[in-house]
Design brief:
Strand order of the largest sheet: 8-9-7-10-13-12-11
Distance between the termini: 38 Å
EC number: 1.2.1.38
Helix content: 25-40%
Number of helices: 11
Catalytic activity: N-acetyl-L-glutamate 5-semialdehyde + phosphate + NADP(+) = N-acetyl-L-glutamyl 5-phosphate + NADPH + H(+)
Order of helices and strands: EHEHEHEHEHHEHEHEHEEHEEEH
Pfam family, one: Semialdhyde_dhC_1
Largest sheet: 7 strands, mixed
Structural class: alpha/beta
Number of strands: 13
Organism: Luteococcus sanguinis
Bound molecules: NADPH dihydro-nicotinamide-adenine-dinucleotide phosphate, N-acetyl-L-glutamyl 5-phosphate
Radius of gyration: 19 Å
Keywords: Amino-acid biosynthesis, Arginine biosynthesis, Cytoplasm, NADP, Oxidoreductase
Shape: globular
């Protein structure tokens, strides 16, 4: 049996990557494709790389067009998914790539998104303790933001092993421009982007800050604090996060090494690099892999953890399909690869 899938937001970067991966997934068949103002056009005009789907008509995003499928992916702008999801039957597996259902605290939603909170769904990060069991029995999945996935997986072993408390965490993460979606933003025009690196969302205002804190709490931190600064760098895909945090007294380099190797020993997509080798975004492009490494800076008593992933793959569509597989009872890695493209 194959599962039929509809994709809303098929003309965007996230929707396009969902479709690229679904085309290689042996257990699904691709049904209706919908978007917003592009309705009535053909997918090939927007996603020329998805050749087998080039002649598909892009439909309007309505309940009727999304009905009759086993699975619906929503790859729509923030604040759009809630209304669409409300129209879908409970038995349909709905996977939201947007932020609408990620946060548990409505006050945090209001503070960072400045709109009404749509609700909270199971979080699509299987690497969190106990999360595979939760995902296995759900019909609603909130796919994490790309920075929170990277920052959380960078610090997870240190938090779960009790090497850090989760206070005074600093995350600086550089993203490729596809993270911003297809819509042009002033700081993303070609002349400003290429040949230049820049910071944005500075001063604790980026909406992924509460998502990082929510994840750190989930990993055992008591009242965590984080200073998160996103950076835009001239590459199309990829995120590289540098995460530092004070270690508790007595933690050694050997403790750090052991914590990372143990935490990820059985993870299919998270790879701890050999000691002294540091993640590079190029190595995970096109794959669902996360490359991680960590060390101790003894002079300042801080752990330095570095992680990289492809923002459109493990950071969005790949992570979404990994969680989908769990919810469908399929092997978790179906249709996904941990092998990147290099150089
Ligand atoms: N890019 C990334 O790395 C990541 C993105 N995400 C999330 O995925 C979602 C999509 O992001 P992304 O693909 O980057 O964005 P894009 O701007 O590239 O694509 C947006 C998509 O939504 C459609 N759309 C826009 N407005 C509406 C509407 N009112 N009704 C129906 N469809 C609409 C667009 O269709 P049309 O062509 O008709 O305008 C397009 O298909 C966002 O919530 C984003 O946060 C999550 C993690 C990472
Ligand atoms: C470079 C860039 O602009 N990145 C996006 C993050 C994209 C993402 O993963 O997050 P959401 O799903 O929450 O949109 C940003 O900072 O808004």
């Amino acid at each position: 049996m194959t599962f039929s899938v509809a994709v809303a937001g098929c003309t965007g970067y996230a929707g396009g990557e969902v479709l690229r991966l679904l085309l290689g997934h042996p257990e699904v068949s691709i049904g209706n494709l919908t978007a917003g103002s592009s309705a009535g056009t053909h997918l090939g005009q927007h996603q020329p790389h998805l050749v087998p789907l080039a002649d598909r008509e892009v439909l309007e995003t309505t309940a009727e067009n999304l009905a009759g499928h086993d699975i619906v992916f929503l790859a729509l702008p923030h604040g759009t998914s809630g209304a669409v999801a409300a129209l879908l039957p409970d038995e349909v597996l709905v996977v939201d790539c947007g932020a609408d259902f990620r946060l548990a605290d409505p006050q945090m939603w209001l503070k960072y998104y400045k709109s009404e909170h749509a609700g909270t769904w199971p979080y699509g990060l299987p690497e969190l303790p106990g999360q595979r069991e939760t995902l296995a029995s759900t019909r609603r999945i909130a796919v994490p933001g790309c920075y929170p996935t990277t920052g959380t997986l960078a610090l997870l072993p240190a938090l779960t092993a009790g090497l850090v408390t989760g206070r005074d965490v600093v995350v600086a993460a550089a993203s490729g421009s596809s993270g911003a979606g297809k819509g042009l933003k002033p700081n993303l025009l070609g002349a400003e982007l290429f040949g230049s690196a820049s910071a944005y969302g500075v001063g604790g205002v980026h909406r992924h800050t509460p998502e990082l804190l929510q994840n750190f709490t989930r990993l055992g931190a008591d009242a965590p604090t984080v200073s998160f600064t996103p950076l835009l760098v001239p590459m199309s895909r990829g995120i590289l996060a540098v995460v530092t945090a004070p270690v508790v007294d007595g933690v050694t380099e050997a403790d750090v090494r052991a914590a990372y190797e143990q935490a990820y020993a059985d993870e299919p997509f998270v790879h701890v690099l050999p000691a002294g080798q540091w993640p590079q975004s190029q190595h995970v492009v096109g794959s669902n892999a996360v490359h991680v490494n960590a060390t101790l800076d003894p002079d300042v008593g801080r752990i330095i953890a570095i992680a990289t992933l492809d923002n459109l793959c493990k950071g969005t569509a790949g992570g979404a399909i990994q969680s989908m597989n769990l919810a469908l009872g399929l092997p978790e890695g179906t249709g996904l690869t941990s092998i990147g493209v290099a150089p």
